Amino acid sequence: MKPVLTFLALFTIASASLFGQTADEIVGVTKNFLKTLSAEELQQISLPFDDPGREKWTNLPVGLVPRPGKRYGDLSEESMIQFHRVLTTLFSSQGYLKVTSIMKLDDILNMVYDSTFSRGKISKEGLAQIKKLDWEYGNYYISLWGTPDVKEPWGLNLGGHHIAISLSMADGKYSLTPLFIGTDPAEVRITKFAGLRVLSKEEDYGFLLINALTEQQKKVATLSQKVPGDIITSPSGPKRIDDYYGIKAADMNKEQKGLLEWLIKEYVDNLEHEGAKRAYDKLLKSGVDNIYFAWIGSYEARNPHYYIINGPDFMIEYDNVGFDNDGNHIHAIWREKGGDFGEDILKAHYLGHKH
After folding, report:
1. Which of 53, 63, 156, 310 has a Cα-to-Cα distance from 179 of 20 to 30 A?
2. Distance of CA 242 to CAs 219, 238, 245, 330, 344, Å?
3. Measured distance CA(293)–CA(56) in Å, rounded
4. Which pLDDT band holds residue 10 (cuts at 50, 70, 90)?
5. Is the distance from CB of 147 to CB of 70 less than 8 angstroms?
6. With 70 as the cut, is the pLDDT of residue 14 above it?
7. Least confident residue range of 12-16, 73-77, 186-190, 240-244
């Protein structure tokens, strides 16, 4: 048995080094991507790390809010290939497929509106106004803040309609929060893509959890107010939610806590394994019992609903209203308290280094 155990131990170590997706590997794939860019493209993409724009984000279409950096759709095919290597290094398979599917969903959304127009449900003028919002698969912008390095601070952002990704790194540690994702439509209901749901589990697990509570627990968890028109911690709204609302996990049974963990992991597990494990271990250290879950709105799909998961170290917000109040437009964000944009990592770096 000893040789088998030795082999398994070596395989585990080798697997970790091959697939751990460490800070060194993130720096490496980013540099490989940058090597494919021309001097002009490098100038377009590069910004100073201390530029305040690094911490600005929005989920709005680029037709409403322009983004800094280089437009993804203008990259060469080789650059696109290498940028996807960056994404697959940062994210797990589920996270990578969510990000790329959200990008593709913009093309589908254009098809949905074209079909809606052809069915006489919106005017020619209305369709023209929608087209001015300028959403499509290529309209996402990549910005580099500083120079990729394992030790010195730097960052990489990807922004566009319903995506805001912010990588921050220093001293071999990195952060990917705030991480915003969204879908419109949440469920495609017309065209050949009818039935497609890119962020299905963020919705489904939320309904599973709220409907697994007893009637008394539901009363505690449900807030008696109108479903917010957007996540409360959106760029245009208040930056903080200081109070805890809803039901505390300590007051849930084992099965209900399990559903809560499923829902949390749906967000955390978008990161590659090492990043997800680090984030979840931090959450467990603070204790699942100290997490609060609150709900607003309908307990059934296709109706407006909202939830917030609020713990000592993190916050998840999810909102699904839709322009027609049909519960078909998701905005969701995962934040780390004191850790967004690498705040804690950078604080430790600057305290330990002379700058």
Report:
1. 63
2. 21, 11, 10, 23, 19
3. 28
4. very low
5. no
6. no
7. 12-16
Of residues 296, 203, 283, the one with CA closest to residue 249: 283
Angle between helices 124-131 and 93-118 (to 10 degrees): 150
**CA-based angle 17:23:29, to the nearest 5?**
90
Pair 297, 227: CB distance under 8 Å: yes
Retrieve residue 130's tokens: 């929608």
> What would the DSSP string read from start to end of 192-210?
TTTT--TTHHHHHHHHHHH
pLDDT of residue 9: 44
Element (H, E) at 94: helix 93-118
DSSP string, 149-191: -SSS-EEEEEEETTEEEEEEEETTEEE--SEEEEESSSS--SS
Confidence of residue 236 (pLDDT cuts 50, 70, 90): low
